[in-house]
Amino acid sequence: MAIYTGFNILFWCGLRVGELLALEIKDIDFENETLNINKSYQRLNKEDVITEPKTPKSKKIIEMPSQLITVLKDYLKTLYKPKPSTRLIPHTKYIFEHTMKKYSKIAEVKKIRIHDLRHSHASLLIHLGVNPLLLQEDWDMKRLKQP
Predict the structure, then answer these.
(1) Are 79 and 86 in contact (CB under 8 A)?
(2) What is the pLDDT along the chain (147 residues), one digit of tens a residue?
(3) Is 71 within 8 Å of 4 (Cβ atoms)?
(4) What is the DSSP track for 107-120?
(5) Residue 36: beta bridge partners?
(6) How far is CA 84 from the centre of its chain?
(7) What is Dmax (Cα atoms) for the chain?
(8) How crowded is residue 88: how many other Cβ atoms within 10 Å of its Cβ?
């Protein structure tokens, strides 16, 4: 369920995989239907490292669509006594890459990179009428309405 939830967050919110993997339960605000992006996860020398996001603009508050809110609520019910500081998706980038490769092969479609889900999200926003120049200049999802 964690991988399914992670792929949903990547697509619906346009996060980098490091931003996804650094999310903690306290970063979810169901009342305001937002995610707080303020850190990034890396695996360095076999250790989990939480760092500042890639760029200053990477710190943002992202609006979540109702589909994602449902997925997150269902997923949180499966966790055993989570604390606010519990990492939401306790995996590494490798798990997502392996899963993408596995299911692309099963579906007999070309495998895409995990980062390509960020591009899919941008395409969704353009389809919904968001100005592409706004996306290029400022990836601030707080101002971009999602379905």
Answers:
(1) yes
(2) 999 999 999 989 888 999 999 999 999 999 999 999 999 998 888 888 998 887 777 788 989 999 999 999 999 999 999 999 999 999 988 999 999 899 889 999 988 888 878 777 777 777 777 777 666 655 544 344 444
(3) yes
(4) HT-----TTHHHHH
(5) 61
(6) 18
(7) 43
(8) 23
Say which residue the tokens 């592409």 belong to.
132
Please, what is the angle between helix 66-77 and helix 2-13, to 10°?
160
Residue 109 in tokens:
């479609």
* Nearest CA among 143, 85, 99 for reference residue 10: 99
Based on the number of CB atoms within 10 Å of its own CB, is 76 exposed (0-12), middle (13-18) or buried (19 or more)? middle
Write down the pTM of the prediction.
0.82
Which two structure tokens, joined as six digits, stand for 21? 């993997």
Looking at domain 2-143, what is its CATH homologous superfamily?
Answer: Intergrase catalytic core (1.10.443.10)
What's the confidence (pLDDT) of residue 137?
A: 59
